[in-house]
Amino acid sequence: MLGTVVLVLAAVAAGVTAGVFFLYSNAIMPGLRRVDDRTFVGAFQAIDRAIVNPLFLVGGFFGTLLLSIAAALLHLGDGDVLWWAVAAAVLQAAVIVITGAVNVPRNDALKAAGPPDGIDASAARAAFDERRWVRWNHVRVLLSVAVVVCLAIALLGA
């Protein structure tokens, strides 16, 4: 019973994470692509400051990894359920690595550039490398959806 509850919580956390990255790919970044540099810098800085919060980080991003690992441990000896939970954990770990290696450094550099009214917003936006950020976010979407699928399959076997 506890193993199933943890799988459900992992799937919910994974769905939240996938939804956030999907929203970035399909609404936030396409919307920001259409604005001037100063607006882009200010809006992205504000969005990034807002998303770095305990609810998203624990309830979704890192929570998915921890809950997937817990689900795997609670299903030791349960064959397929175990391996689907392990696959979800590995995929979520890849999402975390990509985020830390590609997206977060760009986010942090853009925030460190300063308020958009006091900097060369065009240079800050160019240094951010929007295309690379978006391309890797698409990878995060695909991996995050794969995490949800793995956990859904694990739930079917639980």
Automatic annotation (TrEMBL):
<keyword id="KW-0812">Transmembrane</keyword>
<feature type="transmembrane region" description="Helical">
    <location>
        <begin position="55"/>
        <end position="76"/>
    </location>
</feature>
<feature type="transmembrane region" description="Helical">
    <location>
        <begin position="82"/>
        <end position="102"/>
    </location>
</feature>
<dbReference type="Pfam" id="PF08592">
    <property type="entry name" value="Anthrone_oxy"/>
</dbReference>
<keyword id="KW-1133">Transmembrane helix</keyword>
<feature type="transmembrane region" description="Helical">
    <location>
        <begin position="139"/>
        <end position="157"/>
    </location>
</feature>
<dbReference type="InterPro" id="IPR013901">
    <property type="entry name" value="Anthrone_oxy"/>
</dbReference>
<keyword id="KW-0472">Membrane</keyword>
<protein>
    <submittedName>
        <fullName>Membrane protein</fullName>
    </submittedName>
</protein>
<feature type="transmembrane region" description="Helical">
    <location>
        <begin position="6"/>
        <end position="24"/>
    </location>
</feature>
